[in-house]
């Protein structure tokens, strides 16, 4: 069921909404609000959102509304000079909306926000060196966003992140001159990605990887002069690809 299917008009406290007593009743006549569709008093966010889309001139005066959804949506439409006063709002949804609009000099002050979703919003807008303090954020999801945005040259500082998902993102983006340092990562998925990206003449270090899937990728990509140890690999699939390449039956261009 979507909000269009909801045929009740209740405010955030669960009380019926009375358009006749609303101070914006004059806007109903000009179709700038509509029950069940666009109403600032309604408890449903979609209806509040539409109200402010139709009435941006009213956004600023609703920044102190007791209902967090109203504040969070109003701050998206209010003039920018009103936005900073909600940087310390008690609700994280409101602060996330604030973080999406603040200029850089003020956004920097929100890097330490107590809520991870707010910090993700911050990290999604900052760039380059401004992200450096967030590379050690206590929450992995924030660090993951940072790993996706920092310049390539900053990624070596995140190669040893405690979370495998963060290291996997690092392995996807880090420069080739650093990638070999991740060949001994404890996580199989990270090593697999390393094996897929390393230059063929750098893969010899991964011939004895503990995971056969990693060795399979190594056998399919390694430079010919390093191929022999994989011909006698204990796993049949690895042996087959190595022997096929040695016999010239499998060309590197034919490999996945």
UniProtKB/TrEMBL annotation:
Name of the featured protein: LRV FeS4 cluster domain-containing protein
Pfam family, one: LRV_FeS
Coiled coil (UniProt feature): none
Taxonomy, superkingdom: Bacteria
Domain LRV FeS4 cluster: 10-60
């Amino acid at each position: 069921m979507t909000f269009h299917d909801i045929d009740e008009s209740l405010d955030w406290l669960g009380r019926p909404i009375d358009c006749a007593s609303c101070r914006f009743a004059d806007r109903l006549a000009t179709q700038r609000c509509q029950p069940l569709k666009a109403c600032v008093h309604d408890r449903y966010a979609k209806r509040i959102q539409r109200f402010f889309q139709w009435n941006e001139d009213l956004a600023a005066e609703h920044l102190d509304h007791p209902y967090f959804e109203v504040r969070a949506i109003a701050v998206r439409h209010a003039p920018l000079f009103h936005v900073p006063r909600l940087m310390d709002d008690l609700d994280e949804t409101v602060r996330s909306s604030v973080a999406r609009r603040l200029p850089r000099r003020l956004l920097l002050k929100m890097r330490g926000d107590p809520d991870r979703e707010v910090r993700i919003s911050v990290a999604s807008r900052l760039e380059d060196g401004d992200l450096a303090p967030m590379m050690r954020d206590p929450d992995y999801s924030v660090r993951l966003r940072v790993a996706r945005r920092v310049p390539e040259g900053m990624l070596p500082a995140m190669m040893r992140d405690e979370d495998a998902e963060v290291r996997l993102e690092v392995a996807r983006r880090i420069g080739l001159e650093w990638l070999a340092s991740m060949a001994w990562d404890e996580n199989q998925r990270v090593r697999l990605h390393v094996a897929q990206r390393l230059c063929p003449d750098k893969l010899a270090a991964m011939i004895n990887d503990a995971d056969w899937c990693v060795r399979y990728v190594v056998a399919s990509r390694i430079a010919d002069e390093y191929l022999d140890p994989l011909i006698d690999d204990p796993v049949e699939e690895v042996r087959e690809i190595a022997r096929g390449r040695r016999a010239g039956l499998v060309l590197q261009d034919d490999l996945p």
